[in-house]
Amino acid sequence: MRAGFILHILGALIFFLGSMMIFPFLFALYFGEGDARFLITSSLITISSGLTLFFGFKNTGEEEISHKEGFLIVGLGWICAGAFGTLPYIFSGTFNSFVDAYFEAMSGFTTTGATVLLSIEDIPHGILFWRSLTHWLGGMGIILLSIAILPLLGVGGMQLYKAEVPGPVYDKIKPRVAEIAKTLWGVYVLLTAIEVLLLLLGGMNLFDSLCHAFGTMATGGFSTKETSIGHFNSIYFDTVITVFMLIAGTNFALHYQFLQGNFKSFWKNSEFRFFISLTFFAMLLVTINLKINYFETLAQSFRYASFQVASIITTTGYTTADFGKWPCFSQIMLLLLMFIGGSAGSTGGGMKCLRILLILKHGYRELYRHIHPRAILPVKLEGQLVPPEVMGSILGFFLLYILIFIAATLVMGILGMDLISAFSSVAASLGNIGPGLGTVGPVYNYEHIPFAGKWLLIFCMLLGRLEIYTIIILLIPEFWKK
Amino acid sequence: MKIIIIGGGEIGLYLARRLSQENEDIVVIEKNENKVKQILENYDVQVLHGNGSSLNTLRKAGIEHAEMVIAVTDSDEVNMIVSLIAGTQAKIPLKIARIRNTEYSKTSEILGKKYLNINLAINPESEAIDNVIKLLEIPGASDVINFADGKVQMIGVRINNKSNIIGKKLLDFKDGDFKGKFLIAAISRGSRIIIPRGSDTFFPGDFFFAITEPNQIPNVFKFVGTEGETTKRVMILGGGNFALNLARKLEEKGINTKIIEEDKKRCIQLAEMLDKVIVLQGKGTDKDLLKEEGIKDMSLFIAASEDEEKNVLVSLLAKRLGAKRVMALTNDLTYHQLISTIGIDVVISPTFAAVNSILRYIRRGKVISVATFQEDAAEAIEVVALETSDLVSKPLKDIKFPKGAIIGAVVRNGNTIIPTGNTVILPGDRVIIVAIRSAIPKVEKRLMVKLEYF
Lengths: 482, 454
Known about the structure:
The structure holds 2 protein chains of 2 kinds. Chain A is mostly helical. Chain A contains 23 helices and 3 strands. In chain A, strands 2-3 form a two-stranded antiparallel ribbon. In chain A, a hairpin with a 2-residue loop joins strand 2 (380-381) and strand 3 (384-385). In chain A, helix 7 (125-140) runs parallel beside helix 11. By secondary structure, chain B is an alpha/beta fold. In chain B, 32% of the residues lie in helices and 26% in strands. Chain B contains 16 helices and 22 strands. In chain B, strand 2, helix 2 and strand 3 (46-49) form a beta-alpha-beta unit. The longest helix of chain B is centred in the N-terminal third of the chain and has 14 residues, at 76-89. The chains are: A mainly alpha, B alpha/beta. The interface between A and B is medium-sized, with 11 and 16 residues.
């Protein structure tokens, strides 16, 4: 591994991140709440650090980024992004401690949306915009964006792409990775713009529209309001955001094909069918449960149930109601959905529908084998064989996910959290959802969690966003052997 | 007429023999030297040694003057090239090619008028599969031949030992038993085929061929006392392309299907390509496997592996283990007569199916369709009755009909008439005549239905 080369690339990433801080700076100037100078300072520091690294270390050798280097760049890239992302919070004194600032930044970049902010509406607009922007950048991937924009990463970018957008199977929608990155980001920008427009049409101001569109399309969940989307209490906004959460939870390659005129692409995709059927099924069950035990009318039950189910399964984490007070069944449903998550190739987190679907198929196959011991039944997806290595990798992922979940929950227990809160805080962080249940429920936040617990959850968010393998392998001694 | 046949395989030789018997000039091009010698010695045809796709060889065979080219080599590519050459080098009226790869036939453009311009692309496997599907639809039948776009069917039925028509003469049956409902056009006994008269008797093990409308078919089975069970479960031995394509068709029809294949890699491929079909890895001769997978509940067992002898044996084993109906795939026509006597219900032969289709295609003209059955011993011919024919305008009982031929059905204005002695044929009727091969010239002469083949 070439340390200099890696730092060189990281420099480019950091420079890029710094230049992104210009946008919140502009908002800060407009609103004039005194946060503009913090933002410009952060931006300048980030840009100059980036440039120092970029020019301080040379692109040694002609070789492309290797497999291992790819993992390291992406892993370190995200950790650095979190670190530099804290600067606006630190300079403006939004948080008292570094861990809180880092928690908020990482929760932003990983599109988790768990917050340690006590009173959101007192924070200046520039900082809030940065907070939402971290979602948007992290949603489709900072590194993917860099590949799209910086030509130097285009060569060998496949290693970076694989590490940042892991997914169980790759569908290369274009021959070149830089083209893929541009296409995906193009679709992402387009969909975000449409959502902003629809929110503006509904009467939301530009600032809120942008922040909420960022939060939705990235399946993040940071809101500019204390009570999240519930603040607006508008069926129109609920509907628009529900639809866009589901769009964001769908594979972006499908959106691209749709834009190319292939209108059947959605229904032909078995993961999408699984994702949508599961979502509607969960909406139905929660609606019934709420109608019987909680709300007066069916319409009301459906309104809140559909929004919340969409929000949780896509791992967005917006709320329109305090589901912490909902009947047990609804809470359990939501908790389970946290593990499933959105589609592969979407901005959603969790284990991803495709993996769950394939694991279910695999499970069925094992049962089937007991009936027909001599039958050959490979796991298939849309008529195509799923290679045993991919199936193994998926099962491995599932196992690691659950193991990490259990271990982290145990630690949260040791730190003194109650069962529901420990369980759901880890699930919500690992799945990049945001609000959990109990003391981390929708009307509470993560501020009260002990110091060590916050670091653990930060780690979980990062693991969840980069789909475990990318980060975990950096911790394995074998990785560092020459 | 000059016909060039490229490829001296099963289909090529069979066609060569048949067509030379009909006094056509045949040139066979074959690349295997030993085979060339063998053909020269046994067939009344000209044989050229060489590659069919070679322009020189084709010129030597006289492609410029040929009126028909039949490319039936093992290779689709060669067959396609031959058709291409024939199209560009000579004004050949008819081009027939064996194209096995279904990808080509799916996109009709390549084979169609604009490019290769193949008049008939024949896929032996698909033809055989179509036959199997036809047989599935009429459980209990050993043959199914369609006439008049399926309005009339001829089905072959085996008379089993328990049937109560055994020992009875055709004369013994009363009018209501089958007259007007269906007509017994032929009886096959061993290697002999009989066009029955009143004095003929049914024996166990006979097959009889009944001509009828599709909705009368249950009456045929009622008459013979065998009841065909609807096909619900099928087991196929062997995982070749025949098995794969057949399984696909069965899958579409919603029939429970199992495939047994020895090679594990092929099993995985099959499982990938098929959705609901259960793919089992194992040997067809593995009795335990067959039992475990419920052979006794199978409506149909089809042995379609590459080993033709094994197909015969395994289908017999399957029958013993309780499969209701068994079929064996074998291309070797010499086995056919033997096989039906030992208890295999149907023999599937892609070669025979292909030959049949090619012959039917070649002979269309005044003859609407021709089908050979019982391995070529008899033919069923569909013709339009001409005004000048002896057939028309008087009751059938007054017509002196040649021995070995019978009128099976008459189709008038789309209605099917199963003829009796009093039926009168009118000019313009479609008439289906069943005749043994030796009687065909007489039929031609006496009835003035000129069987112009080309």
